Amino acid sequence: MIYGIGTDIVGVSRLQTNLDRYGERFAARILAESEMAAFRQTQSQAHFLAKRFAAKEALVKALGTGFR
């Protein structure tokens, strides 16, 4: 059964700006602790964060719940 469809587009440059300004604190607001380990090891942290954020945003749109 399909509950809904969700899509999301994220500007990588916008996330890079926030990472430059706030560092890991910004990423920690979006990522789970288990995701933070992979985030710290990746070369392109803004791209990693954009992919994870877009996936989570699309999921909550599809479910119709929003972030809490």
Q: Count the DSSP helices.
A: 4
- Write down the overall geometry: elongated
Alpha-carbon Rg, integer: 13 Å
Average pLDDT, rounded to a whole number, is 90
> SS-based structural class?
mainly alpha
Please state roughly what percent of the residues sit in beta strands, choosing from under 5%, 5-15%, 15-25%, 25-35%, 35-45% or over 45%. under 5%
Low-confidence stretches: none
Number of domains: 1
How would you describe this protein?
There is one protein chain. With 68 residues, this protein is an all-alpha fold. It has one domain (12-62). Helix content is 68%, strand content 0%. The chain contains four helices and no strands. It has helices spanning 12-22, 24-30, 33-41, 45-63. Helix 1 crosses helix 4. The longest helix is centred in the C-terminal third of the chain and has 19 residues, at 45-63. The two termini are 25 Å apart. 9% of the residues are buried.
Give structural attributes:
mainly alpha
Q: What is the gist of this entry?
A:
The chain is elongated and about 40 Å long.
List the helices and strands and how they pair.
Elements lengths: L11 H11 L1 H7 L2 H9 L3 H19 L5
